[in-house]
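User: I'm putting together a teaching handout on how multi-component assemblies are represented. Below are the sequence lines for each component of a complex, exactly as they appear in our records. Could you produce the 3D structure of the whole assembly as structure tokens, so the students can see both representations side by side? Please keep the chain order the same as the input.
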Amino acid sequence: MTSIFDIPTGVLFGQLLLGLINGAFYAMLSLGLALIFGLLNIINFTHGAQYMMGAFVAWLGFNYLGLGYWVSLVTAPVVVALFGMAIERTLLRRLYKLDHLYGMLLTFGLTLIIEGVFRQLYGISGMPYAVPKELAGGWNLGFMYLPIYRGWVVVASMVLCLGTWFVIEKTRLGMYLRAGTENPILVRAFGVDVPRMITLTYGFGVALAAIAGVMAAPVFSVNPMMGSNLIIVVFAVVVIGGMGSILGSIVTGYLLGLVEGLTKVVYPEAASTVVFVAMIVVLLIRPAGLFGKGA
Amino acid sequence: MTSSSTALTPSPEVCVRRQRWFALVVAMLAAAAPFAVYPVFLMKGLCFALFASSFNLLLGFAGLLSFGHAMFFGWSSYVTAHALKVWGATPELAILAGTAVAAGMGLVTGWLAIRRQGIYFAMITLALAQFFFFLAVQVPFTRGEDGIQAVPRGHLFGLIDLSKMMPMYWFVLAVFGLGLFLLHRIVHSPFGQVLRAIRDNEPRAVSLGYRVERYKLIAFVLSAAVAGLAGSLKSIVFQLASLTDVDWHTSGEVVLMTLLGGVGTLFGPTVGAFVVVTIQNYFAGAGSWVTIIQGGIFVVCVLAFREGLVGMASPFMKRRGIIV
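Assistant: Of course. Below is the structure of the complete assembly, with chains in the same order as your input.
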């Protein structure tokens, strides 16, 4: 077997692939957070719980309704997004005129409720979710073994992220969105229904988290706490990248996933902390974040 | 002060007399409480009350939301437990060691976190706390999932046996009182006034020539030190230091206590802490109901109840000159 610096290439590329998958989830979640923060001025702490709900809706759909992976990939985000939009309409809407911190506190409280309810119903042990049979198995690429499902997650998430970037930066709809971020009152004066746009944006951000959850279900096990540790890492990613740039959040997400994967090979003890160390380094060198413009 | 409220406020002498009476009654009630209520419960409440009060110094008076205060609480708890159990230190030295470590951590993490404002500050403190959580999982001296168990309480100053319930309780009460008094003096000092100016209008404070970063950092270190003091006390009371103390849930709980009691009030965090600890005790066997209820209180507080319990009561008490 070939190796680089005494590390078997199979292990190295296997970990890098897993890192890329984690990076895909970081990218999708931080992208959603940035979109929501841009328009709502709220840091959506519930994002991790909504990721978990996406995985759970897929799992529940399979076990109680017999819905397959491909159906869940569409229905789970829709269900979770509807739930999110209901929260935005009834609760978050009351906070827009207050300090940003209240939004974070409210969504933190919602996270506790959601995770508590799921833990009460399904316990804390992980539940398996099978890889869809179309994507089962793997290819031997010579230098590594590629499970098809993992390859699919990387490609699909990239398409999704770049699609979102394209819609926001290059289309008329995205133009309204960017204008709403800059100056909602003026956009409203031009006849755009800004409150509806806010609700839909929140729904879209939440849907991204839920899709990430469905994609994660076959890779990791489905459990009520799967989102809470992830969301803290995503916060670090957001601090590193800054929320000013859509492409910036995507690039930072994948980059940190790769860094984490690489750390797992080189120095496994630091794998759980490397993202936080990266955040510290960025704060020291570029306090505004890699793509940020001021605090 | 408006003329209408001046008419209702009693004369300064009456105010001072009422404040002294109020303080005396509270102190006597607190000293006598263990004869009526389970002392360990009271001590737990006092530790968390001190912890929440330290957090309140930042949020209530400097406008800084630290979402990672458990790192100071938990790590000082580890250091104190280690000092007592492995080094055989006396309790006061172990507490000093824990508090000093927390203050040092506060200096480093505060220096990093104040580089960004508002929501980013909260996210950075949360991420740094998670870093210290993983560190606690991996470093051998914390003993991982088991934590440091059966910590000896020892003799205070080599004289007072803290393994007896009553001396332990009065010691905790004394440290709590001292801590709260210290925070009270900080808030009402010229330094505290500048902090409030920064909270209310940071650019203005900068343009007036204040070195805002330095003030924020000092407030952060002070807050971390008091949070560490609370954590050290906690590890002596429960004779245990564990991963629960460094977990992000603990950071969230201390936010909840402060919010529920009243952000920016002297006694709010204490009231909030006792309510939350009571809920924890009451629902201890009911699985994740504690978390669900805490989440519910968060939502209600943020939506309808932002001044908190003490915040609602304080206009009444201020009018009668009972509190300042």
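A couple of points students might notice: The two ends of chain B are 13 Å apart (CA to CA). Chain B touches chain A at residues 65, 67, 112, 115-120, 122-124, 126-128, 130-131, 134-135, 137-138, 248, 252, 255, 259, 287-292, 294-299, 301-303, 306 (CB under 8 Å).
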